[in-house]
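Support reply, case 0932

Customer input (verbatim):
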Amino acid sequence: MLLATRGVANMAWAQFNTLMAAALSLVLLAACDASSSAKGFGDKTTTSDSDNIALQVAELNVAELNYTAISASEFVGEYFDLANIVSSTQFWISDPLQFTVPASVISFSLSFHSALAGDDLFLVNLINPNGDSVALQRVSACFSDFCALVMPNRPEAEFAAIAGDWSYQIVVEQNAISRADLRNIRVNMLARVGSAPDLSDPLPVVIPVQAYVTSSVMSSHAINSAMNQLVNLFKSNNIVIDFKPVIYLHDSELESVSPDYTDVRTRQLLARGAADVANIYFVKDFATGAGQGGSLAEHPRMPGETASLLGIAPGIPGTLGVQGNGNGVLVALGETQSGDSGSRYVTRSSSELAAVTAHELGHFLGLYHTTEIDASAQDVLADTPVCTLGDDETRIDPATCPDGQNLMFPLLHEDGGTVLSPGQRFVLSLSPLAQ
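Our regenerated output:
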């Protein structure tokens, strides 16, 4: 997510230069062996393949798993700091579920999809093949009807993608366990295998990106200019963006959408995206649309912030390699501004649009904010600078924050937003979507 600040100015960018690198293959993750003591990945599986991606999709009947009761206090204390949203007094934790990561793995992603994800259904207790517990705090996030994680999400050995048998557990709120929408939840696993990229190489990887534009408020020339700048922004951080030709959608219903990824109209837009690329959806603005008077649609988890919202990702990460409502980022081409003479719609500059889009792609591929706006949380990566608040401050100031120049700083401002740390480049370069 990226919010606006006042006084955003144009930034200078280099010209577009297309570069390619050798692709690394992606391979199907195997289900666990039937003789394993843990339950398998799922009884019903399908696969789909393209040149670089092999994906396993399984159906898991959560209602039929074996569970042990735990209290809400145990759940919050042991697994997640969710005290502000947990209202139940009783949860159930499943027996371990197992999946196998293949040899020569570079990275993998795991996601499961349910309308209850993040509210009454959670992924916990990730155990690697060495028997080590991986701290899921800020590794697995649950948003927008899915939970997802990517490994590695930082350079430390604890978070490495290791070949072999992994396990995890599911926690379900007791009153939700018999609901029909838990009968068949979708679980997706994707692994990238081959020779790990040489991160000392000036341009070690390529990330494929596809953009969709739903509004004519910005010219194709301006959008192409912004995307050229985005390509050069990543190139300056040793990452190549393989930017596919922009696809223009002529559907007035999709011109303005809610930033809530569970919204019906937003889902209709996201369904257009392919699974094997990082999708960008450029919309006029974040509103409910003309059918409801064009009124602003507040995001359910961000009350009061939608008016200044520039872009938003479905999660950290998104559902990498999976088509659906978690596969892509939403970016507003402009906003309606009010003044003494009334209201008028103003489009973003090309440099602003490039910076916002790059920031949201960072989230989609697994990067966090360097510092949250109220300084309540900092990046999980050890090498990104962070900001603290003064005694009388309630909001970080890009002018005084040491991370103000970082791409993942949460506020767009005129002097920053282009730099990635080595740890951030590590996460992006090893992404399951990278080639």
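We compared this against your earlier run and they match. Two observations from our side: Residues 371-420 form one domain. Residues 5-40, 42-51, 288-300 have pLDDT under 50 and may be disordered. Please reopen the case if you see a mismatch on your end.
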